[in-house]
Design goal:
This protein is mainly alpha-helical and 131 residues long. It has six helices and no strands. The protein is elongated and about 55 Å long.
Length: 131
Amino acid sequence: MLYYILLLMIFLHIVDDYYLQGILAKMKQKSWWELRVPGIVYFNNPEYKYRHDYIVALVMHGFSWAFLIMLPFYKIGISGDWRFFVIFIWNALLHAFTDDAKANHGAINLIQDQSIHILQIIATFITLSII
């Protein structure tokens, strides 16, 4: 049964990372915000009120992703203590940081991005299987 949960976690990762992002896929990129009004350098202009909004999109997607990949463990009843919540927050933030490194800094490519996400899933699976 546990290996079925791991496969379900990977499937839900694919669903959220590729199908459910919607507008968040664009909004988590600084370049999307820069294209709203051509000719203005937004992120160097302290008066540009949307210059940090991409961070909200990154965190929202990270939250959505963490929720979905951890949903199978919630379904079987492993969710009642503070450790579950800590792992959830860790997953959401690490996912957001990883996506930021790819989308905004060019520090990693898609293969590295997806490898980190799969490692997150495996680490989460192992940790929640022990709890």
